[in-house]
From TrEMBL:
The lineage of its organism: Bacteria, Pseudomonadati, Bacteroidota, Sphingobacteriia, Sphingobacteriales. The modification N6-(pyridoxal phosphate)lysine is found at residue 195. One of its GO terms (biological process) is cysteine biosynthetic process via cystathionine. GO terms for molecular function: cystathionine gamma-lyase activity; cystathionine gamma-synthase activity; pyridoxal phosphate binding. Keywords: Pyridoxal phosphate, Transferase. It is an enzyme of class 2 (transferase). This is Cystathionine gamma-synthase. It comes from Mucilaginibacter glaciei. One of its GO terms (cellular component) is cytoplasm. Belongs to the trans-sulfuration enzymes family.
Length: 379
């Protein structure tokens, strides 16, 4: 089945009791048992719920995976993966990460004796210098947040296999429409479903998709034991959001391309990060592993102080100044004070996350209005 058909149908059969075409919201915590242990496959909704199950099967299909697990947030999904580790283990990851991922690694899991190496993965060969017998996992994002650096998934996958590591890709920025890491050697794909997959800025949710049955059982055990699982109403909203994922992504890419072209030579823009430019770093890798380049763009403003940056960020009329991304509406974000505030300045500077950097999540509004808004705000 092709992507759009899966987005609309995967995991969703007409409801067996009524024939309802749309998956019902099974708003129940518990399920009747005929005799102890004799039930219809559902016992308690922390572990299993039919609405969530339909969503998980759909999520798995989108990433060409066998198994899907939905979590109550992207960070809940990340937390479950980290619980596979034990004190003394080491993780290799990128130096340009979602701020919350950096925070959970350094402020929570470092305290449990797990060591993280934050590396510039634009050339994956650097991983070989850090792998030792304690290394258990590689965790990457691509494109990275917020500087849109591209990491070669297949190349990291090869290094991971050769060293018998668990390779996890946070695929939030690309969405499963643009990129499927499992097909390129990833063991687990993580998503903040809050973003493109949900797509309407009305739900916080996370997901893991994977193929290996043993690993699925381990992660399901953590999911049920620790309990960061989403409710049926949110599961329903995301199933509904997914039905237009392919249509939304096409529009995000088209608007993203037009906004990138407009900003590229704008006199107020010193630098622009968007993987679709032929002269952007690792553009050839992006072309190889992504179907298109998406609607996430970051710009560094020319000669702008922090105050200038604040003033420009506050003068948009269509773009809303807010955290998050991937919804139908356009958003503008100031990473240093918003999403990446928990990363120390020295680390931020190393990754190019400077005071005068703004990140755009280009939505699916009419492009004329978006360009007009950019024009007036930058003026
Ligand atoms: C938002 C985000 C997360 C965290 O997901 P939540 O749903 O907010 O918990 C993780 N990674 C990336 C790349 C994100 O953008």
């Amino acid at each position: 089945m092709k992507f759009g058909t899966k987005a609309i149908h995967a995991g969703q059969e007409p409801d067996p009791t009524t024939g309802a075409i749309m998956t019902p919201i099974y708003q129940t915590s518990t399920y009747w048992q005929k005799s102890p242990g004799d039930n219809k496959g559902y016992e308690y909704s922390r572990g299993t719920n039919p609405t969530r199950k339909a969503l998980e099967d759909c999520l798995a299909a989108l990433e060409n995976a066998k198994y899907g697990l939905a979590f109550s947030s992207g960070m809940g999904a990340t937390d479950a993966v980290m619980k596979l580790l034990a004190p003394g283990d080491e993780v290799i990851t990128g130096n340009d990460l979602y701020g919350g991922s950096y925070r959970i690694f350094t402020k929570i899991y470092a305290n449990y004796g797990i060591k993280f190496h934050f590396l510039d993965l634009s050339n994956p060969d650097i991983i070989n210098e850090y792998v030792n017998d304690k290394t258990k996992m590689i965790w990457i994002e691509t494109p990275t947040n917020p500087t849109m650096q591209i990491v070669d998934i297949a190349a990291v996958g090869k290094i991971s296999k050769a060293n018998n590591l668990l390779f996890v890709v946070d695929n939030t920025f690309a969405s499963p429409y643009l990129q499927n890491p499992i097909d390129m050697g990833a063991d687990v794909v993580m998503h903040s479903v809050t973003k493109y997959i949900g797509g309407h800025s009305d739900v916080v949710m996370g997901a893991l998709m994977l193929n290996d049955e043993e690993l699925y059982k381990k992660l399901w055990f953590i999911y049920n034991a620790c309990g960061a699982t989403p409710g049926p109403m949110d599961s329903f909203l995301v199933l509904r959001g997914i039905k237009t994922l392919h249509l939304r992504m096409k529009a995000h890419c088209e608007n993203g391309r037009a906004v990138a072209a407009f900003l590229k030579d704008h006199p107020r823009v010193e630098k622009i990060y968007w993987p679709g430019f032929p002269d952007s770093k690792n553009h050839e890798v992006a072309k190889k592993q992504m179907r298109d380049f998406g609607g996430m763009i970051s710009i560094v403003l020319k000669d702008a102080s922090l105050e200038d940056t604040y003033r420009i960020a506050g003068s948009f009329k269509v773009f809303a100044l807010a955290e998050s991304l991937g919804g139908v509406e356009s958003l503008i974000n100031h990473p240093v004070s918003m999403t990446h505030g928990s990363i120390p300045k020295a680390e931020r500077d190393k990754a190019g996350v400077v005071d005068n950097l703004l990140r755009l999540s280009v939505g699916v509004e009419d492009i004329e209005d978006l360009l007009e808004d950019l024009k007036q705000a930058l003026a």
